[in-house]
Specification:
2 strands
Length: about 130
């Protein structure tokens, strides 16, 4: 019996005002994994802390359902501190696993928002050291 290959819906390019380079970081061969439920249905990239920064560290892929208030009825509010912290940490780990090298803008974002990462009691979250000499 021939195995059927599951069809993956092409969702690329991910929508939102992020650079193509940032969208490419979250593209996984024509699809992107939703940070909320783990499905491969993400079509949007959410600004985790609002549009204060277009750093990849402020980005997370979400499906339209999980990106909209109507779709989140049984989930915590998308802008709650609990959700923001969860998405920031997930994005940081994801980018670290990719071997992503933070830019100056990224380092500034991480430093400005280090309170979200400082609360984590995990050895897996390490912020880059920002040199005062540079």
């Amino acid at each position: 019996m021939k195995k059927s290959i599951p069809k993956v819906r092409k969702t690329y390019p991910l929508k939102n005002k992020f650079s193509q380079e940032t969208r490419d970081l979250f593209d996984e061969g024509g699809w992107a994994r939703d940070w909320e439920d783990g499905t491969n249905t993400a079509t949007d990239i959410h600004h985790i802390l609002g549009r204060c920064s277009s750093s990849p560290y402020n980005a997370c892929p979400l499906s339209p359902r999980n990106h909209s208030p109507e779709g989140r009825k049984r989930l915590p509010a998308i802008h709650s501190q609990e959700v923001q912290k969860k998405y920031l940490i997930k994005t940081k780990r994801y980018l670290d696993e990719l071997g992503y090298k933070p830019t100056e803008v990224d380092l500034e974002f991480l430093e400005t928002n280090k309170m979200y990462y400082d609360q984590v009691k995990s050895k897996n979250i390490r912020l880059p050291i920002i040199s005062q000499d540079e």
